[in-house]
Amino acid sequence: xxxxxxxxxxxxxxxxxxxxxxxxxxxxxxxxxxxxxxxxxxxxxxxxxxxxxxxxxxxxxxxxxxxxxxxxxxxxxxxxxxxxxxxxxxxxxxxxxxxxxxxxxxxxxxxxxxxxxxxxxxxxxxxxxxxxxxxxxxxxxxxxxxxxxxxxxxxxxxxxxxxxxxxxxxxxxxxxxxxxxxxxxxxxxxxxxxxxxxxxxxxxxxxxxxxxxxxxxxxxxxxxxxxxxxxxxxxxxxxxxxxxxxxxxxxxxxxxxxxxxxxxxxxxxxxxxxxxxxxxxxxxxxxxxxxxxxxxxxxxxxxxxxxxxxxxxxxxxxxxxxxxxxxxxxxxxxxxxxxxxxxxxxxxxxxxxxxxxxxxxxxxxxxxxxxxxxxxxxxxxxxxxxxxxxxxxxxxxxxxxxxxxxxxxxxxxxxxxxxxxxxxxxxxxxxxxxxxxxxxxxxxxxxxxxxxxxxxxxxxxxxxxxxxxxxxxxxxxxx
Length: 479
What we know:
14 strands; 15% strand; six-stranded mixed beta sheet; 47% helix; alpha+beta
């Protein structure tokens, strides 16, 4: 089958019998029609439709050498640097279509599944490991153009280093048993973005596992019996793209996953009951290389969008001659160009990994992933500062359809634009930086890859510093 259309994606999601809870009620009916989800589902559907666009098809897809089917390019296992650049250009196209706002656009998790499949050699002949199941998932995902979410965060009951869970009932999702059909999971996991809105859920541990009952990885359908998704409050302000230009389209929803005696069939299990593999697979695999490459590409597109908004604000209220404004916009430019340089460096220094795939250099990607959580909140602040009081003087779409339109046209016009256009621009800036959707975006980018301090610590500990030290020792002729 290969690539699907947007309609096929929507039909498939609507046909799932997923157990989703929102605002204290179980959701009934088509998910694509629910106010909390319809915007993001339509936005995702539009991405799938791009794959069938004859002008873009060669940039977004490739032909399977095995089946001849047209496959989404995010599933491509790169063998050359050209393959790697092709993947990046595909990611850029999807990111530009959604202005970089979708952290869980399908290509992110497609990349994760691809990287897992590209690293299965690490699991061969290891205890309780089933690399063939990862390869089976990868082939099925390509053939059916599956969508995924994932979860790897445990509940924040007690995050002290010495805490060990001691409750009678599991809090963090654990293997509580197994039988001839599979393993049984009970407990919870956090922060599955777009939880319940995808075909499958990829569940794994991100390291730091001490208990064998938490040392597992698998993928199951979203409507698996016993699996429940609990939604947070929706940040979609409404349907109006005038009032909520971003949240009406890109509110992704984050969910808590509750596993109530969930049976994971053996052919869905990647590994279990193996602490060493659970702690090492993600680090040793190509996951971080390829997933970070996808994320940095999206974040660059998002930063270009931020720069466009900031400059349009400047032009709308004619403040470009002020040096402090120029300095602030230059901050965004510097951040943007730094991220772009690091991304290109990762591709220039890419090498074939031990499994034979062209893997981007991880160091520049790690640096970019540590920089962005620091600069993104600052860029949001810059837009707030440039917009100043105009960020809170923003009438609604209905105001412009009322008798007060004449007042608005007189008093809210920009230097070179109408009042309605000016308000549209400022509402966009507000939705990005000050609405509940916007503040979630800041928190999301701040912790996308986890604790920035831990990421910096890992970079310090793994960076090859020895030659630099040796040079100083030789320079000083130390003995």
